[in-house]
Amino acid sequence: MHVLLVSTYELGHQPFGLASPAAWLAEHGHEVACADLCVESLEADTVREADLIAFYLPMHTATRLAAKVIDKVRKLNPAAHICCYGLYAPLNESYLRSIGAGTILGGEFEPGLVSLAARLSAGGASGPQSEPLISLDRLKFQVPQRSVLPPMAKYARLRIGGEAKRVGYTEASRGCKHLCRHCPVVPVYQGNFRVVQPEVVLADIRQQVDAGAEHITFGDPDFFNGPTHAVRIVDALHHEFPRLTYDATIKIEHLLKHRDLLPRLRVTGCLFVTSAVESMDDAVLAKLDKGHTRADFIDAAREFRSVGLALAPTFIPFTPWTTRDSYAEMLALLAELDLVEHVAPVQLALRLLIPRGSRLLELADVQAAIREFDEPALLYRWRHPDPDMDALAEQALRLAASHGSRREVFGYLWNLVSDQPMPENAGPLPHAAIPYLDEPWFCCAEPTEEQIAHV
Fold it and tell me: What is the mean pLDDT of residues 389-400?
């Protein structure tokens, strides 16, 4: 069986979601090719040779882009079976089936892909899907097969102190034990998370270091869902590779609950932690069911400064409840906390996405704001009660997509909502002193015209 695994977008990382199933499929005797359309073109001959073409859909942008490519591959190879797998596949099952997907796999998808390949090899292409739509089985993972992926040099770099470092990517867990209303993990994992065995994580990192990685991104939805698991991995990582640095994503709630572990992160090589703050408004945070408050965020930011770690907060600044004043207050607090250079411009311009199955639909004021479900866009369209806020969101997104520095874009946004000069202390350190990955976009953003044209 010839299998082609396709990724359209993974935040500038070499996709774990291709490398992991590639190892499982190869273990069962299948010939596997991979195409990461973020950094390479889709080869027509590779498409024509495939019996099974499986699209990895870990996020909104990837799914939107994949829909464009599915039509292309069906024309090149109408006999191939199309599968969509990953977090966003079951969320958009009906639409994906309508554009040609015969199999949809969510959750722990590797065994489903192996089962599907075996079924197709046995002539079961015309039968109904026998693999579960969502599997939360506890797996014994294989070491990802990265030799079938584009070289690491094609992906995003870590920028710090004027240097650019090659970045590897791995996952130590999937899912999340929390139920934040806006999060796309929740409809699939329902408060569950699954770990990747430490020896597999370390073997994956080892092979990436051998390929030139100088920094590792842990792509877990929350690295501290299992803090003991996480610390065991970074301790072993630092022991084996004392010069290797890393970053991870952790909730504000967990950062404060486990603040005693922050020095441990720093001494084992952590450069920064991404945290989905989402809002500075306590009323909005309550609606999102985030589990932290504005005061908690301030506490975490100050704790990070005292420990010597960089905090990279992410936001959803435009919601049905955002006001011009609350947006201005968000910018002012970022300036007050000296976090201007820590925030990627797109984080100051994201508009709340409401996909099918979202817990946001439980809220009466969300029901009042939404319009029809836009199936090709994979979300419910909504309008702000104040049309000026929708206009502000559009202006902010245009500015975020510009090529200015973080400080410059912040200044443009500041001037949109404030007559006061930007505080002198906004961004006291040069951008080069703050570690960051040079991928400019984000998973919860709509794809740009440039991204759509690329695929």
Answer: 94
pLDDT tens-digit readout, 71-100 = 999 999 999 999 999 999 999 999 999 999
The answer to whether the CB of 272 falls within 8 A of the CB of 312 is yes
pTM above 0.85, yes or no: yes
Nearest to 178 by CA among 219, 220, 213, 209: 220
Domains and CATH numbers, the chain: 2-135 (3.40.50.280), 158-438 (3.80.30.20)
Tens of pLDDT, residues 184-204 = 999 999 999 999 999 999 999
